[in-house]
Amino acid sequence: MAKILMVDDDREFLEASKAVLSAEGYQVILTKNVSQAEKKIKEEKPDMIFLDVMMEAPDDGIVFAHKLKKENVGIPIVMLSAIGKVTGYSHNRCDEVMPCDGFLEKPVNPKSLLNKVKKIVGK
Asked: Is the whole model's pTM more than 0.70, yes or no?
């Protein structure tokens, strides 16, 4: 079964996502920041990453996604953000500014989370 790395500073979101994904048989690794994520990527070699856009710094997720793409890590990245909810502006697409393989707007419903995983890594 696929191994999913979740990178987000929202502990409640991480725990809820882990419960949903684990119930479907996915192995879920939780990290709260980029430095932990870098370590887990090397140790665990996940099949997919969910990455929050804003953590300790407002652009942590975007900067980290650029770094992973530049290093050609080859792991699909789905960006997570509540930017639209906070600002009214929704940047829910992957492009040069947001280098990713998918995007989910927070709050994320369980069905959307599972659908994104199935689309990217399968069952």
From this structure: yes
Neighbour count for residue 65 (Cβ, 10 Å): 22
Superfamily (CATH H level) for 3-121: Response regulator (3.40.50.2300)
The pLDDT tens digits of the residues spanning 5-58 come to 999 999 999 999 999 999 999 999 999 999 999 999 999 999 999 999 988 888
Report the candidate in 1, 61, 11, 122 with the shortest Cα–Cα distance to residue 114. Answer: 122
How many Cβ atoms sit within 10 Å of the Cβ of residue 95?
Answer: 9
DSSP category for residue 35:
H
Given the DSSP bridges, would you call strands 48-52 and 77-81 parallel, antiparallel or unpaired?
parallel
